[in-house]
Amino acid sequence: MKKTIILLVAALGFSGVYNASAQQLKIGTVDMKKVFENYYKTKDAEQRINDARTAAKKELEDRMDTYKKATEDIKKLNDEIQSPALSKESKDSKTKQRDDKIADIKGMEREIQEFQQNRQKQLEEQTMRMRSGIVDEIQKVVSDRVKADQYDIVFDRSGPSLNGVPILLYAKDSYDFTQDVVSALNKNKGKEEAASSSEATPKPASTPATKPKNK
Hints:
By secondary structure, the chain is mainly alpha-helical. It is built from six helices and two strands.
């Protein structure tokens, strides 16, 4: 009985130390997905990627139009070659034209395939670079906030586990400083564009001072 009381007191004492230690921890949460989606540079990056994708699509369509025209020319030459009224010289000439166009069209097929693969790879790399740069900027703002407010632990409340279950099952709203991070990231929106356009605008040449004439 005495031993049980000692163990109970020890357990309560340890629990008290643990609770006191836990109460001293400063915990915060950030919804990184929400921050990423609401950062103005994310939307700008997505627009640039969409523009690049549209330009690639237009270039591919132009190549396909050229390819389609070449196949139509080959079909037309084939029809002309089959004409019984065609002289041997004309038939030989058109056959050579057709064979040259067939060789050209095979080259077009390779170029179109390579273009699709290379442009897709370029777009993926561009997307990854932009995403990585934005994530680094977000991480810096979060780190600055953690250092300034001396957080001990910060959880990403948007991150799912490998099982698809949210890593953070519950946290008080008072722990969350997502909006503060968004505001810090967007505080320079418009200012950077104004500064860059100002630097790009050439300054007017200064007018040399007129020297007074000697009387």
